[in-house]
Design a protein that fits this description.
Strand content: 5-15%
Distance between the termini: 55 Å
Mean pLDDT: 93
CATH superfamily: NAD(P)-binding Rossmann-like Domain
Number of domains: 1
Structural class: alpha/beta
Largest sheet: 7 strands, parallel
CATH class: Alpha Beta
Number of helices: 9
Radius of gyration: 18 Å
Shape: globular
Bound molecules: nicotinamide-adenine-dinucleotide
Number of strands: 7
Low-confidence stretches: 40-52
Length: about 270
Amino acid sequence: MRVLVTGAASGLGLALARRFTERGDRVLATDLAADPRDAATGTSADGGTDAHTAAPAAYRRLDVRSETDWDSARAWVEAEWGGLDVLVNNAGVAGGGRIELCSMDDWSWIVDINLFGVVRGTRAFTPLLKEQGSGRIVNVASLAGLVHPPGMGSYNAVKAAVVAFSETVAHELAPYGVGCSVVCPSYFRTNLMASLRGGDTDLAAHMTQLVDKSPISADDIAAAVLDGLDRGEELILPDEPARAAYALKLGDRAAYDAQLRATAARVKEREA
Ligand SMILES: NC(=O)c1ccc[n+]([C@@H]2O[C@H](COP(=O)([O-])OP(=O)(O)OC[C@H]3O[C@@H](n4cnc5c(N)ncnc54)[C@H](O)[C@@H]3O)[C@@H](O)[C@H]2O)c1
């Protein structure tokens, strides 16, 4: 298969690029840095990808905020491969913060990367995939797109939008033979929190702990994503905490609301 991964210099993108490469797929890894040596460190905070060191053969700079970068990535794919089988819209940043603390600039920043980055990528490749009559778009959202903890308004909102957009794309492109999956993991170890904005130091400390202390590595998530794709799943919940949290919301809404209100009450206690 011919696979393009965004945000592939670190964390989940790096782990996915390695896993696809290892199983013999052709991978175009992309990220912000112009030079892959500045991007791919080979070690990442995920604590799990080092066992999988297969380096993707091709790397290009692709800032998901730039339509020009997307156009040139598509031109590269068409010239080098004559098409694309899997587009993984993985690049993302961390945001959030209590409502009055997260500025509109921070909202615009996270919408531009985590939501519009996915939209730009999907728009750039949809004509090609429709013409091929094949291919799959894989959007990395988050469990936060399905269950919505307090204090994380901007992150929850953009990830929920990615879930809604992905379902729309799956339905809209099905008649053309093109699929779309959305990935909704819980917290796992990566460098994600280095990007955090949102003006809320209390929340930042809490979220950083959840990511850094998670028992789940980026490679665990990457392996589960590939399994989910092999099964043709459109909603991929790649870890047990994510499956349990979403099942609670669907199965016992009162318990779900009580749990998140207790979380909000603890935040209020810390304010006092
Ligand atoms: N780590 C978690 O706990 C967690 C949980 C759920 C979902 N996610 C999602 O997983 C995805 C990958 O994040 P990660 O945890 O591996 O973090 P990470 O910070 O380790 O990797 C993210 C990569 O995206 C790149 N990136 C950031 N902005 C970019 C842009 N404008 N254009 C191109 N690349 C850009 C970064 O350079 C980095 O290499 C994100 O969408 C994130 O929201 C992460």
